[in-house]
Amino acid sequence: MDAYMPSTTLFVLLLPFIAAIFAPALTRLFKHNAAWLLAIVPVAIFWHFSSFLPDVSRGEVVTGGYQWIPAFRVNFSWLIDGLSLTFALLISGIGALIVLYSGGYLKNHPHLGRFFSFILMFMGSMLGLVTSDNFLMFFVFWELTSITSFLLIGFDHKREASRRAALQALVVTGGGGLFLLAGLLLIWNVTGISEMSLLLLSHGALADSPFYIAIFVLVLGGAFTKSAQFPLHFWLPNAMEAPTPVSAYLHSATMVKAGVYLLMRLNPVLGDTVAWETVLPIFGGTTLIIGTLLAIRQTDMKLMLAYTTVSSLGLLVMLTGFGNEKAVEAAVLYLVAHSMFKGALFMVAGAIDHEAGSRDVTKVGGLMSSMPIIFAAAFASAFSMAGLPPFFGFLAKEEIYAGLWHVEAWPLLLTLVAIVGNGLMFVIGFAVALKPFLGERKAPNGHVHDGPILLWLGPAILAICSLVTALFSSVTHAFISSPMSTAVEGEPVSVHISIIPHIGMPLLLSLVTIAFGIVAYRNLARMREAMARLLAAIGWGPDKGFDQFIRGTVRISFHVTQIVQPGRLEFYMKTTFIVLAIAVLVPMFMFDELPGLPTMPESLSFYETAIMAIAAAGLLSVLYAKDRLTAIVSLGIQGFAVALLFMLFGAPDLSFTQFMVETLSVVILALAMTRLRLTPADHRPAGKKVVDMIISVIGATAFVMLLLKVTQLPFDATLSEFFTRYSLSIAHGANIVNVILVDFRGTDTWGEIAVVMVAGLAILSLIRIQLRPAVPIATNDPSEEERR
Amino acid sequence: MRTLIFRTVAPFLSSLMVLFSVFVLLRGHNEPGGGFIGGLIAASAFAIYGIACGVSPVRRALYFHPMAIAGAGLMMATIAGLLSIFTGVPFMTGLWVYIPVFGEELALSTVLLFDVGVYFVVVGAITSIALALEERSTD
After folding, report:
1. Is it the case that residue A602 has pLDDT exceeding 90?
2. Pick from A494, A488, A492: which is nearest to A266 by CA?
3. First-to-final CA distance of chain B
4. Which one of A199, A218, A433, A639 is separated from A745 by 20 to 30 angstroms, measured CA to CA?
5. Cα-based distances in Å from A12 to A29, A62, A145
């Protein structure tokens, strides 16, 4: 557990973000060919992480990092074991292909540079997520993937559908992230551990904790939103509004697997309980079936693939929750297989869309001869998706059945679920891979071909990977599958499955699946119609529910705002004074802390009496003023009198400031008052006047009593003595008040002038708004928007 | 309020007040005064000038938008705080240099720079509010 190449790993984790900064400039220079240059970044990352393979395959866990906030034991630390290494290699490997593919797919797009930048930022966040050791670092990267996904889904920000999908994805996954944060903090609190690597060594500490169920629910809240489990799956198909490279990368190969990653990561410490082995298979199985059924309904290739992604995630969750060793191996194999074939199929769908002009399977056909390379890649990937040899998907499916099959009621049910799910995925895989290429030739665009190398390189390489990893399965298992299964299971596991079929139950179940798939494929159109009718009959879905939820929230906050912010100054003043009176008077009476009577001075000099008389006279004239302007000026009289008192009692700075503040507030109030078209005098009815008077008298009494009490408490002179002693010697100033303001408490003053500045800006903009009354002021009433 | 007497006196009064405000600002460290009070005095000077002669002469005289002045002030105060970091002491620690000028010692400090920043923020923010309000009253 030594820090192996610590600085290089740190640099590699930051590299995508650095590249993201330079991506727009490079794209301006080299146009879409910048993709070749930018792809060097993920390739370098891939190369760096491959260097860990020998160590990790021997079962070592590599950790390293730096202290971040040592006081809270928050570190910037990474953990590289079989699980995170496989993810890191998938992210960087597929990432490189996606960067190249984006260059071809978004060629000549005006914001290609921005797109590269977002994709690279996402890559960095996702890499950080899977390699994080520290909980908080993990959470930060988790949310960063949500944010970058938001930016990428909303990339085409001029379309409302994109904006809605982006917001929806952010609300669902970001909200789930908050659950996760709570869960991680709870784990931290219960165990006192803040690092994944240490948590994994504490066997049983969480499962025996009384907070287990709370932790379990919170972690699932994070994992299920991110990995789109039913009924929170709806954001994922909507996220298909994003450009195809994004769908291929984020919403099939990597980001949506973050939830599965989390479950796999915590499986050794949270798993092996009744809750885990019941809840995960139920949610996963439901998601698997519903996802495939909804996929059948679609004709848009991207949406078909998106729904099968939902079901694949369901399958992964189900397998992770199932708990036995074979099921974990199956989950690992399927995860790797899925990233390869689904990434490739998405890129195929995008390439067809790009070249033929549509990605609706009913609108394109017969493209095999025009797009031979794309067809080959699609066909191979569909084989893998269907679980047919000699592709990697086959290994995964054999292992799934090996893991699930038992002659007891519960596993039998799950096996059935898996057969239906896999069979329907077989259908969709071939529908996407065959329908556009076979049959009668039709395409909205006339001239169709494979397109530039940037467009077909990605799917071709992924298809080849699906084949090669399966052919050399012993190598794949040694470096990828076994170390990853070991990390998920928490104890040494070695995977042996190869493409040579073994006679046994899994093979039989595979044959059943294939037979079911072929029958279903032939009846695809009929099933699609049946599903469409069924969905129309139900008429409500979580997607609609989301809209209702958002609308409801807006409406509630509108009504709450109307109650607490009626926009009437009188209401605010009354509330303020009442609260002030309660806050001061209630504790005073409760704790019997009433002030004593003030001591009267022995003798008052003539001018002291005179100044107080002036203050009183000012107040009286406020009360009897005929109009508002007179009242404002009279209030100024009282203020000046108080300033004079300050002067007499030895506070020249305070008095000075009071003079200026009084002057300016009279001027500004008068200016503001003349602008507000108010009646010159106030015409409140007598009853209201009495109520207002009572409130103001009570508020004033409370304040006077508070001041009296404060002056009667023993005076702590420590601070005054400190400032008097050190003002000149440390701060070189004789005026203590000023020295405190600009030196001793300079940071406070700095904050205050920032407030003055911001308040000035706010007032200025308020005045400006009022200058143009022609613009109708928005009421923000949601019902208005609906009416429109 | 545009009486002849007021209009004639206002420019002189205002310039005297601005001069006085600078004096108050600079003496502040050792005697009553300082950036905040100085800023308030200067702001009232501009307000008076605006009431007497209208807003556009004030804006012309100020040259910069008052909010820009406030922003510059905040920037100066921030820089004054940050300078201390380069000498390895915490944020906002006062630094002093004594420059001999004509045989006298001129004390310059980041504290003074900070106080000048405060002065500009107060002048800028309050003047911009006052002028905006006056503008509406003259329109």
Report:
1. no
2. A488
3. 15
4. A639
5. 25, 15, 17
Counting every residue written for chain A, the total comes to 788
* Residue type (1 letter), A210: P
Q: What's the sign of the alpha-carbon dihedral A520, A522, A528, A531?
A: negative
- Check: CB of residue A445 under 8 Å from CB of residue A370: no
CB contact under 8 A, B40 and A660: yes
Which tokens hold the place of B132? Answer: 């905006």
| Complex ipTM | 0.91
The distance of Cα A66 from the centroid of its chain, to the nearest Å, equals: 25
**DSSP readout, A304-364?**
HHHHHHHHHHHHHHHHHHH-SHHHHHHHHHHHHHHHHHHHHHHHHHHHHHHHHS--BTTT-
Rounded to an integer, what distance in angstroms lies between the CA atom of residue B118 and that of residue A434?
A: 73
Q: Which residue of A has its CA nearest to B69?
A: A757
Instruction: Give the H or E element holding residue B5.
Output: helix B4-27
Q: What is the pLDDT of residue A4?
A: 45
Whether A9 and A45 have beta carbons less than 8 Å apart is answered as: no
Region for residue A363 given its phi and psi (left: phi exceeds 0; alpha: psi -120 to 50; beta: otherwise): alpha
Q: What is the mean pLDDT of residues A685-706?
A: 90
A341 contacts: CB under 8 Å, gap ≥ 6: A381, A382, A384, A385, A391, A392, A393, A429, A462, A463, A466
The Cα of A675 is separated from the nearest Cα of chain B by a number of Å equal to: 6
Residue in this structure with the two tokens 């009242």, named with its chain if needed? A631
Q: Write out pLDDT tens, residues A161-206.
A: 899 999 999 999 999 999 999 999 999 888 888 888 888 888 777 8
**Nearest residue to A227 (alpha-carbon basis) of A313, A122, A333:** A313
Q: What is the pLDDT of residues A296-351, one digit of tens each?
A: 888 888 888 899 999 999 999 998 888 788 888 888 999 999 999 999 999 998 88
Q: Which residues pair with A365 in a beta bridge?
A: A442
Is residue A131 a contact partner of residue A5, using CB atoms and an 8 Å limit? no
What is residue A771's predicted lDDT score, i.e. its pLDDT? 52
Structural tokens at position A438: 């076979």
A2: exposed, middle or buried (Cβ count in 10 Å: 0-12, 13-18, 19+): exposed
Residue B117 contacts A, CB cutoff 8 Å? yes
Whether A748 and chain B come into contact, CB under 8 Å, resolves to no
Residues from chain A that touch B111, judged by Cβ atoms under 8 A, are 731, 733, 742-743, 746
- Residue A562: which residues within 8 A CB-CB, separation 6 or more? none
Q: Which of 45-74 (B) contact A at CB < 8 A?
A: 47, 51, 67, 70-71, 73-74
The pLDDT mean for chain A works out to: 86
pTM equals: 0.74
